[in-house]
Every structure is written in C-alpha cells, then in structure tokens.
Design goal:
Elements lengths: L29 H13 L2 H8 L12 E5 L2 E4 L4 E4 L2 H4 L8 H13 L11 H13 L6 E5 L2 H16 L3 E5 L8 H6 L4 H4 L11 E3 L10 H13 L8 E6 L15 H12 L2 E5 L23 E4 L10 E5 L1 H4 L19 H16 L2 H20 L5 E7 L2 E6 L7 H11 L2 E2 L1 E3 L5 E4 L7 H14 L1
Parallel strand pairs: 3-13, 5-6, 5-7, 7-8, 8-9
Antiparallel strand pairs: 1-2, 2-3, 4-10, 9-10, 11-12, 12-15, 14-15
Bound molecules: pyridoxal-5'-phosphate (PLP).
Length: 459
C-alpha cells in the first residue's frame, strides 16, 4: 500500500479535488466488497456482474464511490483516487465543480422540474440559444434528451423524417448507446445486440473502420461506401444517414485518417444522406477543440452531444439546422417527439454553468496542450515496452493499446492494478485490450503526470 500524501512542493493544504492518491486498504476495501455483495442481490445481473466481475468469476469487485470532487474520488473505505477516466468522460470541468453545483442548487431551490414541451422552463430556452451559439455551422435547432442514447435516438428519427428513408450506416467499433435504435447502429460488441436482432437496427449496415481487416486505409473504406451509396441493390437507396464518432471512444480512442471525415461529408452530400456526428464523448473540448469535427473542418447535418455538457447531470441534445428539423413537419397540437423530462431545468442550469466554465477557462486549449504533453510522455516512456502496441490520442482522449489482442481481460487487469495504486482508468477497445484515459480537462498537471508515470511503471 502506498500513500502519496499531498504534493510536497505545495507546502500548504491542498484541497480534496487536487490531491494525489491515498490508498489505505487493499483495493477493493471491505466496505466496497460488502456494498457490492448487497448490490448484486438487488441489481439486474447484466449490470452488476459485468461491472463487478465478481470474484466467483475470477475477477475483482469494483470500488464503491462515496465522494467525488475535481479530479479526486473517495471510496466507501476512505481511499482517495485520481480519476483519469473523468467518470466516463463526463467530468470535463471536474467532479462537483463549485459553479456547476451552485447553479444546480439555485435551480433545484427555484424549480427543479417544468413541463418539457408543454410549458417549458425559461432556463431550457436559454440553453437552447447557447447551444445554437456554440454549434458548428447552422446547427441552430435542438432536441433535448436525458442521456446520450436519447440524443442518438432523436438523431436517427430526425434523419428518417428529413429524408423519408430508413436505413442507417454505422461503423465497426462505433458505440452509440444501448437503446434499440442506438444499438442497431453500434458496432462495438455483437453480443450487446444479439438478443434484440429482431428490432435493433434491422436493415442498418455496418461499415469497416479504416485500418481494420481488408480495409487498410481511409480511401479503401470511402471507395466501398461510394459503391454502396451508388448501388440500388439490397435497399441501398433507402439509406437515410451515416453515423460516426469523429474519434471512436469506447473502441479505444480510434482516430480516423486525415481526409476521411471530409470524404464522408462529400459522399453524404452527393447522395442526399444525412451525416450524423456522435460527439457525445468528444464534444466540449475533450479532443482539444470545442467539437472534434473542427479538426477536419467538417460540419455534419446532425450533431449529438451529452456527457460533459451537463457537468455531471444527465442531459443531452441532438442538433440540426432549421432546414433539417423541418423534416418533422408542424406539430398538430401534440409534440411528435418529447419526454417527461425534456430540457429538465436543473440539467439546463448545470449545463449552462458547465459550458460557461469550459469556454471561460479555455479548457479546449488546455485539453490540446495537456494531451500533447501526455502523449509525448507515454510514447517516450512506453517506446520499448513489448506489451504496448500503440499509444494514440487527441487532446485529453487517450488510448494505450496492449499487444495481446486476444486476451480480452488484459485491460481490465491493468485497470485493477492501477486502481490499487490510486488511479482510475477505463478498459476499452474492440478487443478489450486498450486502456483509455479521459481525465478532467482542468486536472492539475501534477496529478496527471503522477498517473502517467504510474501507468508507465506498471506496464
Ligand atoms: C460516442 C457515444 N455515444 C453515445 C453514448 C451513449 O451515451 P449514454 O451512455 O449516456 O446513453 C456513449 C456512451 O459512452 C458514447 O460514448
């Protein structure tokens, strides 16, 4: 067990949120294990077993979180960690950012809930206008959702009503969520879709990701898509949209080759197919620009955002131009697409505050700068490491691919080993062999460096 204490250079009390790890028990500690035993009794096994990798499966229990602020997390056993995962890339402004919390508290005390589409909240209107301000191109109209999958469903429906077509193209390795529509487009794990094939994306088409299988580069994939879109066989004339993550997240930070996204833009425009960018992971500075589409200067027809947007509150949106949204037609009195919590006021207030922090503190630029530094450190430190086959990144979205692609447990074991040393990372990758990092964009450089050095030493 190793206790890092506070950074020696500081010579003053460093507040929780900016502290190095302090591990006082075996990890997971006894309280975490007991809590997981209880959870396993009450939660659907599809969730607890997978997350928990219970000991009877030969795995270890997870830690159970009790407190999170800034880049720090404390578990129920009192151990302190540095969160290099950003809580699934949500905590871009850090956990419990004081301005975001204050905005949420004010809204909770005034009006936590309104009536979505029927009697909307004033704050929902302010957020819609702010998103229109920040969005690329003319994507000035939105549909709010509660989580990422909601935004993806709204995007799929928007593309269908706007084109009058049905089929959606998605990519191998793409992850868009777990609702039936989103699962249909996702290509991350066939096993997620297998029980629902009758309804999840029947007719949707999976495209190869550049550099996989026989498709060794972006041009080969573009040529394949061009052929597909130009063909009238097998219902190809019924393709409504092509959905892509501009950098694949859950697949282990896979970055498309230069020219690929602009090639897709050109093909979609030529064939009247909606180009949907799922920026739920990459949006709001994660890749070093406000939206990842800026790296390739491509404006999609539809943009999905979520995760970091709410500063920890579940809220998401699907954005499109007025022209595309007109595909829905005029409401005949009842909203054709809505939900009880549409544009929830607390979520909107927290999103406005989180976005303000990201913009004011220039966190996209910080993500680019720290990301480049991190990538150099990892590439330098892991250059001669036979276990590592690739280190890639874009801003503070980083993937360390481990060489043994057949050992689907490798990244999970790395995650537990790092956890025992006080650093939280997530396992990812199509083959389950990638360690992914998505720390808060305002993480203290000392904490990030300590994490990187621990990863380099550990591997
Ligand atoms: C790119 C992307 N799209 C969609 C989703 C689904 O979002 P949620 O889990 O909030 O439904 C995720 C979640 O990780 C994601 O990374």
């Amino acid at each position: 067990m190793r206790s890092y204490g506070v950074p020696a250079s500081c010579g003053r009390m460093v507040e929780f949120g900016r502290q190095l790890p302090d591990i006082r028990t075996v990890v997971p500690g006894p309280k975490s294990v007991a809590a997981m035993d209880q959870l396993a009794r009450f939660e659907c096994p599809a969730i607890t077993a997978r997350r928990g990798r219970r000991r009877d499966d030969g795995g270890r229990d997870p830690i159970v979180w009790a407190e999170a602020r800034g880049a720090n997390v404390r578990d129920v056993d009192g151990n302190r960690y540095v969160d290099l995962s950003g809580g699934f890339a949500v905590a871009s402004v850090g956990h419990a950012h004081p301005e975001v919390v204050a905005a949420g508290q004010r809204q909770l005390a005034t009006m936590p809930h309104a009536m979505g589409d029927l009697f909307p909240a004033d704050v929902k209107i302010r957020l819609a206008a702010r998103l229109a301000d920040l969005a690329p191109g003319s994507l000035t109209q939105c549909i709010f959702g509660s989580d990422g999958s909601d935004a993806v469903e709204a995007a799929i429906k928007t593309a269908r009503v706007a084109t009058g077509r049905h089929r959606i193209l998605g990519f191998e390795g793409g992850y868009h969520g777990m609702t039936l529509g989103a699962l249909g487009v996702s290509g991350y794990r066939d096993s997620f879709r297998a029980p629902f094939l009758d309804s999840a994306g029947r007719g949707d088409i999976r495209l190869p990701w550049p550099g996989t299988g026989a498709f060794e580069d972006g041009d080969t994939v573009l040529a394949y898509i061009a052929q597909l879109l130009g063909s009238h066989a097998m219902g190809c004339g019924d393709i409504a949209a092509l959905m892509i993550e501009p950098v694949q997240g859950r697949a282990g930070c896979r970055i498309p080759p230069p020219g690929f996204l602009s090639g897709l833009r050109e093909l979609c425009t030529r064939h009247g197919v909606m180009l949907i960018f799922d920026e739920i992971y990459t949006g709001f500075g994660r890749t070093g620009t406000r939206f990842a589409c800026e790296h390739s200067d491509v404006v999609p027809d539809i943009l999905c955002i979520g995760k970091a947007m709410g500063g920890g509150f579940p809220i998401s949106a699907c954005l499109a131009s007025e022209e595309v949204m007109q595909g829905w037609g005029r409401s005949k009195g009842e909203a054709v697409h809505t939900s009880t919590f549409l544009g929830n006021p607390t979520g909107c207030a927290m999103a406005l505050a989180a976005i303000e922090v990201i913009e004011r503190d220039a966190l996209s630029a910080r993500s680019a700068e720290l990301g480049e530094r991190a990538l150099n450190a990892l590439r330098g430190g892991l250059a001669d490491n036979a276990m590592v086959s690739d280190v890639r990144g874009c801003g503070l979205m980083i993937g360390i691919e481990l060489a043994d692609g057949d050992d689907t447990g490798l990244a999970v074991r790395a995650m537990f080993d790092l956890l025992a040393q006080g650093f939280i990372v997530t396992p990812g990758g199509v083959a389950g062999n990638t360690i992914t990092l998505a720390p808060p964009l305002n993480i203290d450089a000392t904490l990030l460096d300590a994490g990187l050095q621990t990863i380099i030493r550990g591997l």
